[in-house]
Amino acid sequence: MLFVFAILLCPTMIFASIAGDWSGIVVLPQQRLHFVLHVTGSDTDLRATADSPDQGGYGYPVDLITISGQTLSFRMDALSVFFIGRVNGDQIAGTFKQRGFSVPLTISRSSASPDPNRQNSIIGTWSGILAFPQQKLHFVLHITGSNTDLHATADSPDQGGYGYSVESISISGQTLTFQMNALAVNFTGQVKGNQIAGNFNQNGFSVPLTLNYIGQ
């Protein structure tokens, strides 16, 4: 599958304030699981996918997502998931239900405060949005290894693409760089806490990209 971030000949998409990446932790009786919601579209035509990074699951379809006033609700039919919550600034607090379980869940925009357990390691899953003139595309980077021996793969959930090879990735001081040779992609960014801010380049296009840490 070709991983192309090209300018499409379609009307400019208008994104609602709710659009973006939201993350939180589902606290079940025997485990705690990170949950990430990627929201796109306008208030009247929202779309979304969801990730469960602790379980290695990304891009799960959200079958229906709506907002009415300050109330956001969504459902994921294949996983028997339903959520309803109230939007309050950069947080959405509500109830997560799945197969008879019902637990509180608060999701926050992904620029949340740093994880104190992560310390200075770059290892983990990072997510951001590539804002091209005619479209916005989620980009997810999975980094493994150690700071002196990094490895990575990348996903483009909006295009249904997962596990793309990152041929080289390294960090020097606070500067992270990676290349995806087969896709003519390169990125250089500055690590600051829970964010990596830099420029994404592909086939002559260059756009800013800020990656937010969303968990291991």
Question: Which helices and strands, and how do they pair?
Answer:
Elements: E1 20-27, E2 32-42, E3 45-52, E4 57-61, E5 64-68, E6 71-76, E7 81-88, E8 91-98, E9 101-109, E10 124-132, E11 135-146, E12 149-156, E13 161-166, E14 168-172, E15 175-180, E16 185-192, E17 195-202, E18 205-215
Kindly describe this structure.
- The protein has about 220 residues and is an all-beta fold.
- The chain has 2 domains: about 90 residues, Calycin beta-barrel core domain (Lipocalin, Beta Barrel), CATH 2.40.128; about 90 residues, Calycin beta-barrel core domain (Lipocalin).
- Helices cover about 0% and strands about 65% of the residues.
- It contains no helices and 18 strands.
- Strands 4-3-2-1-9-8-7-6-5 form a 9-stranded antiparallel sheet, with no helix packed on it. Strands 13-12-11-10-18-17-16-15-14 form a 9-stranded antiparallel sheet, with no helix packed on it.
- A hairpin with a 2-residue loop joins strand 11 and strand 12.
- The protein starts with 19 loop residues before the first strand and ends with a strand.
- The N terminus is likely disordered.
Short descriptors:
65% strand; mainly beta; nine-stranded antiparallel β-sheet; Lipocalin; 18 strands
Quick description:
This protein has 216 residues and is mostly beta strands. The protein is built from no helices and 18 strands.
